[in-house]
Amino acid sequence: MPVGTFDAWDTAVLISILVVSALIGIYYRYTGGKQRTTQEYLMADQSMTTFPVSFSLMASFMSAISLMGVSNESYEFGTMFCVINIAYVLSTPIAAYFFLPVFYRMRTTSVYEYLERRFGQATRLSASLAFTVQMVLYMGIALYAPALALEAVTGIHRSMAIVVIGLVCTFYSTLGGLKAVLITDVFQSFLMFAAIYAVIAVSAIKAGGFAAIWEVAVERGRVNFLEFSLDPTVRHTWWSLIIGGMVTYLSLYGVNQTQVQRLLSVRNLKSAQSALWWNLPILGMLSFSTIFSGLAIFYYYRDCDPVLKGRIEKRDQVMPLFALDTMGQYPGLCGLFVSGIFSASLSTISSAVTSLSAVTLEDYLKPLYKAIFKRTLIDSKSTLPTKIVACIFGLLCIGLAFVAGSMGGVLQASLTIFGVVGGPLLAIFTLGVCTTRSNQRGVLLGFLVSLIVSFWMGFGGPKPRPVTLEFSTAGCENATSVMAHAIQLSAKSSGVVIEPDYFWLYRISYLWLSVIGFLIAVVVGYGSSIVLAHFGKAENAEIYLDKSQNQLDYDLFAPMLSRRWRRQEEQNQTAQDETLTKLTEQ
């Protein structure tokens, strides 16, 4: 197979993309309100339209890890993963009409301010700290993973990639605030689509059409949509993808600071809900396209797997290798592909930087300032500290990427943390918006227990490696030596098949981790709240507007529940008035 090179045209395309991203940050620094207030810097003055926010929601969710990972998923395991899009469809109305109206009524910069109003300051601080640790660790892997993969096949040194992406992202995020991040997300979203469609188009040209790609995928067992097993240890089934996908989606789009901050930047609730709905086809289109790109890559390497041949060490690197092998004859196309991967990293990291700076200001700096100086930190004096915090988080991301490179275990650890924290955090907000009997002590106990169990399941081991579909080396040059190398690799990974002696909990599919964490937090949190209240060890005064605890603060609950409870209260009040009237008449 011919091997291309990353030439001057490709470099020019990549540099142009990075320059445009930086210029967007400069533009929004010196236009409009010039980022003088935190309202503009962190919330875009709540002046954004549906279009950029819907694209930004997708770009924040789909990192470079997702782009290369989902493509590799269909390359190694087949198309089953696309079922998760059903979870996105089912979860969107819950996020749009259950959680979002509660946050929109409060108009908070930090989503965790809701938890203080609903439960108390300890709950707010606990959830905020969990989110901060989760995002800080994930930023490092989101920057390091694509740099590592690209270095292996394009020759772009990982250190250069980490520093360049990190500095450009820090520059426009710090300078232009949320407006710059949202607009660059739109620009970078198109580049992400361009990268995926470039892979599909090049493969289709070589295959003579899309039909040939699909036929080979069917013939080699890559097309599979019918895994309905109830066994939770099966990696991907309809149940794990839909139920686990729903919890994951809601933990991101329903209650995550990164996404809610974007949704609150639009003019009104209806526009925010529209942005969520428009995000759905955009996310689905990228998801299906990325899955098909994996099949397109498999077509090209169907008879000579690059890992078995020894060209690359991990199949996560197969997408950039494919780009280098096939796009070299088209000037600048490989550069466009790399720009798309870089853009996925930029959008994820810039989203993390803006959300972390908002949380740091609202949940840590303002309370600390008030405790020390006995007065509130006013908005006009908050902008500069927030920009400094954003810059620090950007630089911290670069440092963590280098640390992740020297400590291999950190990679899996950070990804595991990102998965296991989401379920318990979703549970806290669910108990808050759906129940009146949940209290701070009970919720914190449920949160702690669920985190312990989730981390145990996530970090415990040893765990079996998933069994991949078959690969071939029949079409490789020097097939004999390649076959010998493949046999050697097979011998090294002889423990891949799941053995009976693996502890059952360690064999459970990763998709169930967030579900288990969510259920434990809900059951323990709600149950312990009732028990503690029964014995007088906890109270729930925060949900009432009056000291006598008769008037509920309906703004703290999901709209459909608020309306129902309000009607019940009105009916009870009417019944009491009628009874009082009858007694008076007698």
Automatic annotation (TrEMBL):
The chain crosses the membrane at residues 12-30, 51-71, 77-104, 125-147, 159-178, 190-217, 237-255, 276-301, 336-361, 382-404, 410-431, 443-459, 510-535. It is a multi-pass membrane protein. GO terms for molecular function: symporter activity. The keyword Ribosomal protein does not apply. Gene3D superfamilies: Sodium/glucose cotransporter. Keywords: Cell membrane, Ion transport, Membrane, Sodium, Sodium transport, Transmembrane, Transmembrane helix, Transport. It comes from the Eukaryota. This is Sodium-dependent multivitamin transporter. The gene is Dere\GG20873. It comes from Drosophila erecta.
